[in-house]
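Reading a protein record of the kind used here takes only a little practice. To see the layout at work, look at the sequence and tokens printed below.
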Amino acid sequence: MYETSSYEEYLTRGIKKLPSIKGDEARFIIPAPKVFTEGRTTVLDNFSEIVSILNRDPDHVLKYLLRELGTAGKTEGGRVIFQGRFSTEMIASLIDEYVEEFVICSECNRPDTHLTKSVRTLMLKCDACGAHRPIKKRLVKKEVTRNSLEEGETYEVRIEAVGRRGDGIAKIGKYSLFVPGTQKGDVVKVRVKKISGTLAFTERLNPQ
């Protein structure tokens, strides 16, 4: 009786020390960005709704978007106004990249995480499985492996995914290249028409 009681006590204590899962992965659905242009500006109308789902500081999300788009902007109510014209596809792609970098746990793929600082390093800690990783190291790795693109130049790329609007998406270093009229697995030559931040818009040179 004594040994059984001791075992049960230890088991109970161990369970209490396990990290609790705060969220429900099935409910982690990011709202599609509502984007429209007003003159020479672009408005992300449901910014506050998106940030609420991500459970992140709005200023942190905004700074990321501004840096990647290479533009200026401001919050106004629950929306963001960017200087310049940007497509819904561009905004959606950057939000997806933010989620992968700053929200999703690399171990259990759950969104139950939070950002914290350890000394001078920004860390992503998972409340579901207890894993943690430094954000800084991942960003440095991206910086080292990135390649430069130039508008007007041609490149051969492999389509790795298909975007929400049906365009193929390829990767060169830090850049996501959108290629109309392609499917996953296609290898095509493209000409870069426009680069905005880490997004590049292209035309296919060898359509089939």
